[in-house]
Predict the structure.
Amino acid sequence: MNASNQKQSVLVWDMPIRIFHWLLAISFAGAWLTSESEAQQMIHYAFGYSACILVLFRIIWGIVGTRYARFSQFIKGPAETIHHIKSLMTGSEHSGLGHNPAGALVMISLMILILLIGLTGYWSIKEFLGDVMSEAHETIANITLVVVVIHVAAAIIMSFLQKENLVKSMLSGKKEGTSDQAIRYPMYLLGALLAIAWVYSFYLIVGGSLPALTQ
Ligand code: HEM
Ligand code: HEM
């Protein structure tokens, strides 16, 4: 066995992906927790819109990002996805270090749902189509919560099946693999810029500096 195919801890998730993920989880939880209080309305909008900004960034990063960030790496056709789900049921493992095709479906659905929540939230404020948009907003938010619960449960179950803590990997960026499977650059600077952009957009919205979005 040479050094390149010996198992070790290798970098898979770059910094922008990890910052994206945990800020998205915080934004979703924050928007959820502030959704019913009128006093916290601006905080609700700020969390909600900053979640959408994160998803828009992730779409660009899915096209130009590092190896495992790219959509082409984990979005597979229906045949391959079904084959993957079947092999999960028979207990065989997903080979490769990126997202598995079934999980990827859930993750992409979450991103689309967040954008839809943002759009219907914006239209609710503009009182577009009467109550229709606020009804749609609440319904889509509830559906998203169900998908989030499935997503978190799947991450925990898959961690047991694969005998690798996937939640810890989303924090450290590392998984067990061979050196040729590692990504080369952690992209710390871009991760920091994304975090700053999130804080700045939150600050602008919560302070009412972007009235076109909140009035
Ligand atoms: C991840 C993001 C978001 C989540 C999970 C979320 C969730 C919710 C939920 C559950 C409600 C219903 C509260 C209730 O009355 O019981 C609500 C209400 C509302 N949300 Fe959001 N929201 C998000 C983002 C946004 C955004 C970006 C906006 C845009 C400004 C927005 C604007 C509103 C408005 C105006 C209402 C009140 C609707 C009405 O009853 O008239 N939300 N949101
Ligand atoms: C405590 C809660 C959460 C945990 C433990 C968790 C865990 C994870 C893990 C382990 C992965 C990587 C899966 C893999 O290895 O293939 C992942 C990816 C992902 N999660 Fe979560 N998640 C949580 C909350 C959320 C929330 C609230 C959202 C969205 C509303 C979300 C959206 C996503 C997305 C979009 C990805 C794909 C990441 C990417 O490729 O950029 N997660 N999550």
